[in-house]
Amino acid sequence: MAAATVRRSPYKDFLQPALQRRFATASLGVLAVTYIQALFLANWSSLFWSWFPLSATGFRAIALFFCGILIIILRISQYHPGLRTSDSGISTFFRYAPRLETAETIVTYTLSAVIFSFIYIWSLSEDSGLEFITYFTADRARLNEKPLFLISHLVLLGLYQGFLHLFCDVDRLSLGVAKPQNGEKKAEEGDAAIQMRRLKEQLPAILVRTVNISLIGLILSTIIYPLTVRSAVWKTSLVFLRPIYNLPRSNMLPPTAPFAFWFLVRTFLVSLLLTFSWAAANTAFSLFLVKHPLKNGKPLTSDSKDPNGSLLNGLKNKKLSIKCFAMWELAFIARDFADRRKAIYEDIDRKDGPMWSQVYQICLDTLKTLETSIDAYTAPPPPPPTAADVKAEQQKVRTTEPPRNEEIFQPIPQHKGLRNQVEKAVHQVALAPGQTSQLSPAAKKAVESAKHQLLKIQKEATGSDDPQGLFQDFALRALHSPFGWPFRHQYRRRLAHAVLGSPYGEPSLYVNAACALAGLTVHSLREDRYGNVQRDVATLIRALTGVTKKLEGFQAGLATHWTDVEAERTCPEVEEVLAALKDGLARTIEGFGPYARELRLSLTDMRLAREAAGVEEAEQEMEEVGRGR
């Protein structure tokens, strides 16, 4: 029980040090990769100094490490839990493209590429062929285009990687869940051993992805460089180098582009080094940052003077990342830590109510946001204001008479002529659109012929006389193409947007909330000395039943949009949440089912709860299996 004088430390005071340790681990991984790259670039004339960390190789590794640490810094500033929720790809583009974070991502990758390119060029020997100035004779200096192309290629590769980073939403962190293990100690997502194993398993995929990105980037550079940036890069380089070297005054480009085969192979290998360092930084950050919210095998808040208060602070935090980690820790406590569970049950003298009551309300409100999101998504749009309402708003109380609509000057006499007659006819057509057509018989015949030909083409293409059939046919063909993907309103996107909310939806928040509620409720049968939990069990079962039924019904009833040409009705994120709700409800029914009458749960309540949890279906399947044996 927490004393009133104890200062409650915020949850972020325990989360941030843990995240900083994970940042450091990811940075060490990047440093190891850059040191290996520095070994590849080393001059192996001396066997000792070629690998010794305090030699040129070590300083080169530190310089290359700066290229990777830029990506780590970018991830720290922009990481977020949850997927980006929207109905279509084009909606996501218009929502996130104008943001400052988009420009920050592209600039970071471009800057990293520029730094890497200069470090690589400066690491080469004088006879590498990549020096900026070459001498054909004693004093005839010429600008070498090969290093210019290499730098331009790596910059374009940085732009390409930046767009891929945004498109794939690399900044998302996939947080784990603490599901019940039924007495078995299994390794799960977030465990340090599992993360290292996943890193080893992902190495082949990282290499393949690195090769693909480098190859595509090289192809794009060989197309874009001579068409767009070659002239500008050449002239700009001459402007900066003429004051230093005796270069020709002419800005004429070399007759051929520097696309020799072996030079392109070398450029491809350099691209591999840079792209692999980016991939290593992103992978290490994404894996190590989402480790369990534990420290030395205990919850993060165990070191707090008021562990329950610090945990409550995290659960009430409005920042999604902090709340998700706090809910994850609560789910671990509900599953694995009996002493912390007892502390929650016995903490009854808090200012805002007993600890259990606050935890129960927070988790239940979190799950009920699923219903709120569905209601907001399915709510009809507000009706537009009527003409009478608009007119009433526009009318104002006049203190003077309205201005007169009379001629101020004497009208000028109109002269009759051909021009005036034409203007009069056009004026009558514009003001009286319902009158008969003024077209000549020949013009009418041409219009009817064109209309007939258009209907004939439409019938041949679609087999229908529907005026909109031709447009729909063209639209569906475009949607089936790769260019139509951004405009598809896919079932998975729409369901995740409707259920998880926007702009981000994190399934683990709801899964951990359901697991924590069910775990604390079931364990209270043996560990709750004061019996505070049992007073909320009936309300909990009814609430979980309502949320589960509504979510399941909405999932089954959401119609496929006409632009969803693939019509794939799966959504793993929502299915995971629904499975957690059913599992939590089933565990609660199993634990408190024998006490339903004492808890004032009617037979109807229990029947609806079993139907929502799928308990009866599972029992019937077990009976059928038993009969088959």
TrEMBL record:
GO BP term, pick one: nuclear pore organization
Cellular localization per UniProt: Nucleus membrane; Nucleus, Nuclear pore complex
Single GO molecular function: spindle pole body-nuclear membrane anchor activity
InterPro entries: Nucleoporin_prot_Ndc1/Nup
Keywords for this protein: Membrane, mRNA transport, Nuclear pore complex, Nucleus, Protein transport, Translocation, Transmembrane, Transmembrane helix, Transport
Signal peptide: none
Cellular component GO terms, alphabetical: nuclear membrane; nuclear pore transmembrane ring; spindle pole body
Keyword presence, Transmembrane helix: yes
Major localization class: nucleus
Cited Pfam families: Ndc1_Nup (PF09531)
Transmembrane region(s): 21-42, 48-74, 106-125, 206-227, 259-290
Membrane topology: Multi-pass membrane protein
PANTHER family linked to this entry: NUCLEOPORIN NDC1
Family membership noted in the UniProt record: Belongs to the NDC1 family.
Name by which UniProt lists this protein: Nucleoporin protein Ndc1-Nup
